[in-house]
Amino acid sequence: MHDGPLIVQSDKTLLLEVDHELADDCRKAIAPFAELERSPEHVHTYRLTPLGLWNARAAGHDAEQVVDTLLTYSRYAVPHALLVDVAETMARYGRLRLEKHPTHGLVLSSTDRPVLEEVLRAKKIAGMLGARIDDDSVVVHGSERGNLKQALLKLGWPAEDFAGYVDGEAHPIALSEVDWSLRTYQREAAESFWHGGSGVVVLPCGAGKTLVGAAAMAEAQATTLILVTNTVSARQWKDELVRRTSLTADEIGEYSGAVKEIRPVTIATYQVLTTKRKGVYPHLELLDARDWGLIVYDEVHLLPAPIFRMTADLQARRRLGLTATLVREDGREGDVFSLIGPKRYDAPWKDIESQGWIAPADCVEVRVTLPTSERLAYATAEPEERYRLASCTHHKISVVESLVRSHPGQPTLVIGQYIDQLDELAAALDAPVIKGETTVRERQRLFDAFRSGEVGLLVVSKVANFSIDLPSAEVAIQVSGSFGSRQEEAQRLGRLLRPKSEGKTAHFYTIVSRDTVDADFAANRQRFLAEQGYAYRIVDAEDVGA
Amino acid sequence: MSTTAYRTLADQLRGWPDERLSRLLHERPDLATPAPHDSGQLASRAATRSSVLRALDQLNRFELCVLDALVVLGQTSVEELVDAVAAAPEDVRTASARLVDLALAWESPQGLRALSTVAEALTPGSPGVSGLRPVSTDPLPAAEIERRLDRLSPQARQLLEHVLDSGGTATSGNARQTVLPEEAANPAEELLAHRLLVPRSGGSVVLPGEVGRALRGGCTTTYDVGEPPALATSERDPALVDRAAAGAAFEAVRRVELLLDQWGSHPPAALRSGGLGVRDLRALATDLHVDEPAAALLVEVAQAAGLLSTAAGPNGDPRWIPTDAFDTWTAKPTAERWLALVVAWLESPRLPGLVGSRDTAGKVWNALAPELAGIHQAETRGLTLHVLAELPPGTVLASGTGVPSLVQRVEWRRPRRPRTRADQVVWAVDEATALGLAALGGLASYARPLLAGDRSEATAALAGLLPDPVDHVLLQADLTAVAPGPLESQLARRLQLVADVESRGGATVYRFTPGSVRRALDTGWTAVEVHEFVASVSRTPVPQPLTYLVDDTARTFGTVRVGHAEAFLRTDDEAALTELLHHPKAASLGLRRLAPTVVVSDTPIDVLLPRLRDLGIAPVVESPDGTVHVARPDLLRARTPKEHRGRAQRAVRESAHAGQVVSAIRAGDRAESTRPAAPADRLSPSGSMAALREAIETRAAVVIGYVDNQGASTDRLVEPESLDGGTLTAYDHRSDDIRTFAVHRITTVREVPRSAV
């Protein structure tokens, strides 16, 4: 019997035994086409999805390679139906091509006439296409490039886009690698993006995605529009770009609720773009304000739906998506694939962690028991009130206090969702609090103070979830959060995963109320973290500090 | 082959050694039952049409061609036969020997000859038949025919070829039949003059076999009939074929077990017609991660192997549940379980390939439907697999073209089988692939001994290819347990109790959830047992979250208790309850104290209440919302019956009903009025038919005496419309509708005067 590290299941999951001697080779071989679903300590689970296979196809792998890899590493016989399915799925990508035609402009062509016929008969496609040129090609309205790709993906015939990109307005940008240099994976990521044209780079939080963006800009040498999640993150991008590239602060504009500058490199927030006044998006013109050569989407997994629609019209420009995870809570992974591009680079978290770029983390769930009075209040509460009641128990405050005490001198973040609770905590811990109503200036000041070590303890609401770089945080204590979102968990952990001096371990505490919905949501988080391979423990509140 | 000549077939059979005779009886088993008295009876039985047809069905196309040539040549020598068949001489000799062995031909003093019934059975157009007429009794020499053919005019030659292609006979029309070659006025006369067409009685002409042969270049066919159609093949590593097939075999066994396990606890209902509902099949397919045809195959195979049957459920409706054989089957090693399934499949007449398609009446075929069987199915499967087995290891059917070529080859082997055969061959290949007998278009190495009849070698070879059962799992912090191979059966069952199965295949992924742990506690496990079990099966340390999960579930387990009671008693007076509980007469009331102030009873309230009053207690009844229910004897009232239908509607119905009755009465009257005083003579069948036909022609009404299903004879006034296939279609005055009547039940037919209608 063949003794490989991989077990191929008939439900299209692949189980990889990590302790096997061939596991590393196998991981590298299957990474291009299989999506890592979970990576707990012994057996990692990958899944074969059409999108994953098409991503691989876009990266130049063919079905034979995939089948061969599966057969080579598989321990048992590979279900025949699965192999057939892989071959069929992969053969679907690229049957249709979007090309530039010297006289007709944008053209959809196919080497497989029945496929083209099938697609032409689809109702959703009809309006996007113009005249038939010959048996194998048809004119596409230039404005429908993105919508067409999106619709074709839904039909299961993703088109390969060969129509090329506009160069955009040239602007010199260079990396100024004086006292630092790009890490190997950052360079690889930027290169594979550039060769692929457009696409998404998947790197964990703290792995330096901003620099991948900067490297891509240096390749493009053109005016760039950067879309980020919020203002604080926009400022961070700006600081980083000024520090790491030849760009000066004057060349970089901020386009947010507060400031509306359009410069060769403009950083805009999703929020301002999606602001709607009288049924129109007044800031949409930003997209056409300059002849952008590159558009960078930060945190692609959070890209709001209106931006998708706008992106559909930007298909002639190069697009770089940056994200920690392709998993979207709204399941629109397919739109990311068709509108921004296939995955161009991916590195599993644990791999990067073992290279020392992100800190190892110790995840602990602390369970507090509600006192009888609160249990009664909880039991009789309306369902929508229950989570707030459970997660805001006063018991948590004393637990937080003892946790903070057990990590003296370590920069600590306390993260929560409910403002009342945060205020209470801030009072009890005598620490500053950052919440929605805190001004940007004040936020900036507190974050700077935290980074420099002036402030050792910060209570933050969910505004801190995304894109705020607090590399010095060593302990995070989460007291409440959105309803068990996997994405939020990744972000919060990301706060802590920036490289630590002396290779210290980060601590991530979640405090939950036992026997309530709070604990149910925590179970989701626990699963996500354990699936990501983090050690996870559960302790009772009574044992904390003991 | 013996060269002795025999006077009759019976003589020949008499002269055969026992061993050759028994071979004949083996190949044509219908000759042996019931045992014939003597060779004479055997010979006559062998010559009956039905037996000959059966024997012909066993021949391949080439053998049929040889037999056909023999029929064309009449009585001839083997060497002559070799000349006449376009194939390798050695093959023709072998084939003719086989025909003799099958007693389809015998060696007469004048040479080899086919049974006369064979000639009748080989109708033109049936497989292997060349379409030549028999050779005439005194044929012209071949050279002479050649010479005459050469001298023909082009038109005559064309006509001759046309006659040959259309079966060797034609009508002569106005052509003169006796004419000299010089006087021939048209091509037909030319051919008749040269004796290339021979006149027969009734104005038809026949093209003799020898002329046909000459036209076809000396043989009965213009093409080589000896070569079977080639199989389209390609190369494949036999080890890969084996691996893929063994994988399929493992999956098939696993899925059958899963399906029967599931139906053991949640059986689907059997349809009234005996099949399995479409919805149940679809649900099963989803559960097994297969498509519906594959699911249909699995249930069919499970049934064929005797693992699945119907039994009445609690409400008497039949349901599909596993048989007790399933339990012995599960205990066996995988390879043996596979063998049981495959052997059942090979011999089963079932047609799972039809499931989901519609029959001629447009009804969907259900899996497990009793009618879903075909008499040739098992034979086709065997034949298909044997053809596959002829491919050497390493050679497989080419993808795409391979299966159609296989279909052709199988058809060549048994050309007289019905046309639906092509589907059946494709199904056989698909099903063999699904069951792991074949993969990638080639037969698995372990399937070869099975086809050859050596079952133990087949299982041994398969067992070597199957994953070894494992006795441990890997526990992980995300509360999953991965069994990196098939778990030992007992272990798998226990693990399934404490954890949910998340993914199946070569490996199995289990997930521990509060629900699954509680399930284990429900069946009597303790937390300690769960801990021990988990620790004993795991090869890795038990993760802390799992330990915590088990303890946490055990903590809340059983904190709420549920029991059954018919009534409760509550009071603020604890002493009163204590007194009641200790009252000797209260012992039969089944009282239990739950709390100082609450007692429950398993006696229903209507019994309990008077008994308590007897004991000197004055209880009041509480309603569900806690208020006191004052009981006063209810006064009984029945419901006022409702008018269900509107008056108008009822009136219409009534009048319609009356109309029917009237027309029935009138029809009866008319029948009565024409009844003759004396009972009518029974007509002979042909007489009544004639009378009815006449009525149809004249569009007249008649009164028929008709015997109904209960045997009662009635007179019916009808207007016959058509008479066909033993039934009469007629307008029946009594029922005011078109009805059909079985002619054999019509006893009398009497005319009705037109005025009476």
Automatic annotation (TrEMBL), chain A:
InterPro entries: ATP-dep_DNA_Helicase, ERCC3_RAD25_C, Helicase/UvrB_N, Helicase_ATP-bd, Helicase_C-like, P-loop_NTPase, XPB/Ssl2_N. It catalyses: ATP + H2O = ADP + phosphate + H(+); Couples ATP hydrolysis with the unwinding of duplex DNA by translocating in the 3'-5' direction. Its EC number is 5.6.2.4. Keywords: ATP-binding, Helicase, Hydrolase, Isomerase, Nucleotide-binding. Residues 398-545 form the Helicase C-terminal domain. Residues 190-344 form the Helicase ATP-binding domain. This is DNA 3'-5' helicase. It comes from Nocardioides soli.
From TrEMBL, chain B:
Residues 664-686 are annotated as: Disordered. Residues 473-595 form the Helicase XPB/Ssl2 N-terminal domain. It comes from the Bacteria. Pfam families: Helicase_C_3, WYL. InterPro entries: WYL_dom (IPR026881), XPB/Ssl2_N (IPR032830). Residues 689-750 form the WYL domain. This is Helicase XPB/Ssl2 N-terminal domain-containing protein.
